[in-house]
Amino acid sequence: MKTKKILLGIGSGFGTSTLLVLVFQLFQWTYPQRMDGYFITRPITECIHPVFMGCFILSGVALSYLKTNPFLIALGMILPLPIGFIAEVIVDPTSHNLFPFEVIGGWIPGFLLALCATGLGRFIQKVMQD
């Protein structure tokens, strides 16, 4: 039973953030960037702007209604970036030579934003129940 909740949290977060990126790319609601060679992370980072962040936060709030750990949901929501990073490094080991800055500048803030969003959703649930 616990494994199902872990998979539900990570999987729902991963699926939702991936779907958001696909929708924003499909409708070309992106910032064009010149990042040749980054075939997975470029489409994700092109989407990062205020409208996308608003949708990302609303997704985190909505996903918090799942009865699973908010930490796992937030982890799943940011997981496409590290997975893309690993795939790109496997294909070209010389890419991502500024790895620590990517973690500090992108992964950690994205995770904290997702964690705050799921926490906000849990807070809203508690207020609505009282």
Describe the structure concisely.
The protein has six helices and no strands. It has 130 residues and is mostly helical. The protein has one domain.
Defining key terms:
mainly alpha; 130 residues; globular; single chain
What's the shape? Answer: globular
What is the average of the pLDDT values? 91
Task: Give me the Rg, rounded.
Answer: 15 Å
Which residues sit in consecutive blocks of at least 5 with pLDDT less than 50? Answer: none
Overview of the molecule:
By secondary structure, this protein is mainly α. It has one domain. Helix content is 75%, strand content 0%. It has six helices and no strands. The protein has helices spanning 2-26, 41-46, 50-63, 70-78, 80-91, 99-129. Helix 1 (2-26) runs antiparallel to helix 3 and helix 1 (2-26) runs parallel beside helix 4. The longest helix has 31 residues, at 99-129. The model has no long low-confidence stretch (mean pLDDT 91).
Q: SSE layout and pairings?
A:
Layout: H1 2-26, H2 41-46, H3 50-63, H4 70-78, H5 80-91, H6 99-129
Helix pairs in contact: 1-3, 1-4, 3-6, 4-6
